[in-house]
Amino acid sequence: MRLELIFPGKTKESYLKKGIADFTERLSHYVKTDFKVIKDRSGGKDTARAIQLEGEQLLESCSKSAYVVALDPGGRQLSSEEFAKTVDNWEGQGRQVVSFVIGGPEGLSAAVLARSDLLLSLSRMTFTHEMARLLLLEQLYRAYSIKAGTKYHK
User: Fold this and answer.
1) 121 bridge partner residues
2) Are strands 118-121 and 32-38 parallel, antiparallel or unpaired?
3) Distances, alpha carbon 130 to alpha carbons 18, 20, 47, 104, 151, in Å
4) Could you tell me the pTM of the whole model?
């Protein structure tokens, strides 16, 4: 299985870049992870149009046969153990690509939410979209650590 993280804009904060690099390296021992960065359209006058265009780009960036997971505050909240079982199920089903879509500051378009196979919430709390990248990678690494039975999860 291969993972894709698709999101708008580069990560600007150096501490987040370091954390993302660290967990990407750790995760590489279990699974291939690719990043697809699209243009950040936030900050303009026409927010609705920006969300729509960003959504189109996000969906175009997903691999054609991918299982699409959109990070959304209204999505399912899973424990780390439940998430590990979910990842294990994807592998058992023979999924070749799982695309995690993270929206920008304005959120995801209705088209992205409708296309997604799973809406996933990292928490009921609000995080920056850049921080969500790091949190998702940490949870993916934790899921694979749980599956492997390593000490990281303890």
Assistant:
1) 77
2) unpaired
3) 12, 10, 19, 8, 27
4) 0.95
Give the domain range for residue 30: 2-153
CATH number at residue 110: 3.40.1280.10
Per-residue pLDDT reduced to its tens digit, 129-144: 999 999 999 999 999 9
Q: How many domains does the chain have?
A: 1
Q: Measured at the alpha carbon of residue 101, what is the angle toward residues 112 and 77, in degrees to the nearest 5? A: 95
| Secondary structure of residue 24 in the 3-state scheme | helix
End-to-end CA distance of the chain: 25
Q: What is the pLDDT of residue 43?
A: 75
Model confidence pLDDT, tens digit, residues 17-54: 999 999 999 999 999 999 999 998 887 788 899 999 99
